[in-house]
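We treat protein structure as text, and this decision shapes the records that our systems exchange. Because each token names a local backbone shape, the row as a whole describes the fold. An entry from our holdings is shown next, in its original layout:
>
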Amino acid sequence: MDLLVVGRRVRHFRKQRGLTLEELGGKVGLAVSQLSLLENGKREPKLSQLQSLSAELGVGIAELLEPEAPDERAALEIELERAQQGALYAALGLPRVPVGKSMSQEVLESLVGMHRELVRRANEAIATPEEARRANTELRVRQRQLDHHWPDLEQEALKLLAVVGHERGALTHHDVARMARHLGFEIIHVNDLPHSTRSVTDLASGRIYLPPASIPGGHGLRGLALQAMAHRVLGHREPSSYAEFLFQRLQINYFAGACLMPEPASVVFLTDRKKNRDLAIEDFRDAFGVTHEAAGMRFLNLATVHLGLPVHFLRVGDDGAIYKAYENDGLPIPVDVSGSVEGQLVPRGWAARAAFERTNRTTEFHQITDTPAGTFWCSTQTGSTSTTEEFSISVGVRFADSKWFRGRDTRVRADASKVAAAGGAHSAELESRWAGLAWPSAKVHAHILSPLPAGTFPGVDDQEVYEFLEAHSRQ
């Protein structure tokens, strides 16, 4: 029984009969206050009371209990009551507005409209797995159309670098701090960042909070600081959708890479190495003092536009699941029915997975791979996260373009030309022996399947951030 609907239907039929609360209450043996609570959906009627009401109103009990509101006005009142009872409105801490006959139709429609918009925006802010994959796919297609190169972001990075006069080599932490001060920020390293954040910017006091400067691989902190500054440089506002959030993240990552590896100096370095047929991601990484992943992504930004080399980039977990994947060289990256690559498994013969089998992982692993779409050459480096999860970073080109790279003479070659599925070719003998007898429990990739928490920024606990800022504002 839907008490709100039943109550409104009782009221509707009472008014149709021209009865007041006192009159109907007297006929069915209910006090005015009790009948009012029933009509407002705050009291559940007993069967005997429903029988009495049915008899006095001249309608069947089944008609009283129909699930539809009796008219448009009642439907709006019910919708407003439900909205004000919901957790979304309660979280705002606002008082509830009494819904009754004294409320004008215009006010009622306005309040219901605002609640509908509140729900719409809340739903839009939550990225379901399907929405996240769709937005990622659309952004990946857009990047491919631009050969992963964004000239406007390159120019913004060069403008900020000009403030400290940096042109080539490793950008120092000191210069990053100077760039921050130019934008009105102070960089502060803390031990208690909210768990769901990589950095927090206090716009009121002009502070950028980062992890401790002494953490292993601390050179990555320059990138975090630059990403935080990028929001100010690029004029970002709070994202209104998950797609906008993703695009902003792409922009800040690109901007940070363009600052750490300036386009003019990077192009000179890479052009010279290509001329000498000695291109290597590890040398590009070391020349600018960045992570291998950052160097690989930056190479992706510049290779096609400046070197004439279509390329592909993969970040893959040690189980073969894709975390990031981009290509404009035709590499047949596995996709699902929606075109998404995240969570898909790369074939076992690919370098992105074969690199984990090496004993010596200190240098790049080179491999030639035959695929259904042709032959490709890859350079792969493995690494691990702070939680010891292993991953590989692969940058590669079509085999014909491998002549420009160090490691082109590798004798490691894998034949995946007939492998369309991620699991690879399997033995017919093993299949006949075990088909129907195996029941594995799949490892679930939470980053792919879990919806992101609601909040101003997807995946971030707003309350934890506010408590963090409140605590540090008093220091």
Summary: The beta strands are 186-189, 200-202, 207-210, 312-317, 322-327, 365-371, 374-384, 390-398, 413-415.
